[in-house]
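Input for the complex:
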Amino acid sequence: MLDWDHIFATRASRMRASEIRELLKLLDRPDIISFAGGIPDPELFPDVEFKDAYAEIFSGPAVSAALQYSVSEGYKPLREWLAKQMEKIGIPAGVDNIFITSGSQQGLDYIGKLFLSPNDTALVTWPTYLGALQAFNAYEPHYDQLNPGGNRTPAAYAEAAKAAGGRVKFAYLSADFSNPTGETVDRAGRERVLDLAEELDIAVIEDAAYQSLRYDGEAIPPILALEIARKGDINHTRTVYCGSFSKTLAPGLRVGWVCASETVIRKLVLLKQAADLHSSTINQMAICTVAERGFDAQVAKIHRVYKHRRSAMLAALEKYMPDGVTWTKPEGGMFVWVTLPKGMDGTALLAKSLETAKVAFVPGRAFFADGSGENTLRVSFSCANDKMIEEGIRRLSDLVRGEAAALAA
Amino acid sequence: MLDWDHIFATRASRMRASEIRELLKLLDRPDIISFAGGIPDPELFPDVEFKDAYAEIFSGPAVSAALQYSVSEGYKPLREWLAKQMEKIGIPAGVDNIFITSGSQQGLDYIGKLFLSPNDTALVTWPTYLGALQAFNAYEPHYDQLNPGGNRTPAAYAEAAKAAGGRVKFAYLSADFSNPTGETVDRAGRERVLDLAEELDIAVIEDAAYQSLRYDGEAIPPILALEIARKGDINHTRTVYCGSFSKTLAPGLRVGWVCASETVIRKLVLLKQAADLHSSTINQMAICTVAERGFDAQVAKIHRVYKHRRSAMLAALEKYMPDGVTWTKPEGGMFVWVTLPKGMDGTALLAKSLETAKVAFVPGRAFFADGSGENTLRVSFSCANDKMIEEGIRRLSDLVRGEAAALAA
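Predicted:
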């Protein structure tokens, strides 16, 4: 066999298999109750609406365009719909502030590519979305801890980045019902992130993948909306907003978007042109049709189901988990984040759980850029029914109780 | 406005607008005869077959899977079909040697990402596919000239790359009916590229986007097939083959593939997982259905039409072009490459042509990594009917004759 390592780029050494992806394979084992995925419930997909949308494309005058090459910035009617949608959440944006990506994961990859030179620093929360770390890793950055509630000085960040051989380029965060914690950054925290970004002269990357999945509580304006309120115009902002249809309509079409100042959008368009020309034309058209006809109704349908599951999971945790275990109380999204007693290890617990309790979850360590978070884990309620939640959390709690007792002994 | 330049990565300075893309805008002007694009004729899309394929997905048990997240390596039945297809062209490959990309452009981007660290060297032909240069540019390489007919020593390449601050990582070429020249590398040339790659210990990137568009002449084995003949097993080869459905079925679905040793495929899968998770599930299913049912018939249909257009364009060039102008005689593909008398400039000619002759083409310089090739241009016949070809080449030839005379005066 060829020795490829010296032919590969240095970044290839940071490309490692994802714990989450490996775990997804377990979803097919019928004896396992899985809270490991973070995928939408396929029962909720608007499949009839999509069926009609594709059928109409093939019956109408747009069929040639649907199958042909198209422009890198994306399908204009979809960008127009999105511009109106952004306005509804407090972000006045024009069509030239909207760029279509192949899912918001691609938005994160392109943002890494646009901003990060090797040894630059990205600020991320501890924990953060694992997929963001994977996307950014390809550009060989360092990570430093973003803490929206903390008070580390801008100078301290700048100095650490300089010592690491580069410059801080952006602060990345998911402010609403984040993956993995389900938590939301409050308005004051968002303003502090903007203050920090101003002082450091960096971008803010707002990952809004779960933003429209709020089940209760008051909506907090997106970071981009707060910055527009400061600056008066989206084209003067430094916040790059990444949206996704994967949690609301369907992930299999791979359609997401970025909303930002035109300067950033223009660069992203050039970058996409060089990277994959454009996202699937036909899928952008189908998403546009389904969104125009019933986005709000679809979101309302999802809310009803996921809200119930979220509440069932919180109730089961409350009912079964032993003392010393804590968890977040998300107002939306798909995840609850569980903190085990100190000294327990989520990865070891998973191995045992798959053997004995037959419950799957994601050990929390994967979400920490510094490899900490041993005693944490992520459970998802998006695909779990009442029985699975009750039974799965009961079994997991029994396992945790036993392990905690053994640890204390 | 914010000054973004110091927030962007260094690579952002190499992201520039594409001449071809800007020119595509001209396709809509009805007074212009355009040979500028390089896109398939939408009249030839198998739209009825695609209509049926999507309708069947929505009527069958696969609808949830079609709309859901899927694996990064791609839809298995499509990978199986491709493995059989590769075998038909002399490349015995297993399903684990096949990786689905969002068009072959994404394959090129991922290959740049996998192999190129800043200041590494990529060997490319002079001229080469502009989209490959754009894809690779993001990874900040140097370029050196690959000449399959030449005799520059491996040591000379290695020394030049070292002087440039890195190492030669791969030789990239389109061996069949390349974009932009339409020319084919003969078997001896392919073997020499393999020899060079062996000596330099680098990868060979075989861009096979046009490989199935041969209209006459004898097929030459793909470079990957020749290397398997040497090594006995695809998993011992260094050639990475990039295929596309964009020229045969339809580009708007964004489905292509890479065929290579499992070591390379595994890395590409990890890279894709981090970059966009996977290509559109539903589109991979639709492509698979259409390919399984009638790939060969579709290719035969395209051959008939494009072969006629190719021949009409060569005849028109022969009939109208003045002495001192030469052009390639492609046995397939979509392009003819025209060399003007020395001293003429393709870009200046285009500006004049759009005003007076009303004919569009692509100036050749964009395809040269070193910015040479002033007196060359690319004309595409894929979307031109007899009348457009006759009239367009006549007008272009008249313009060239006048310019050449003015230059000689």
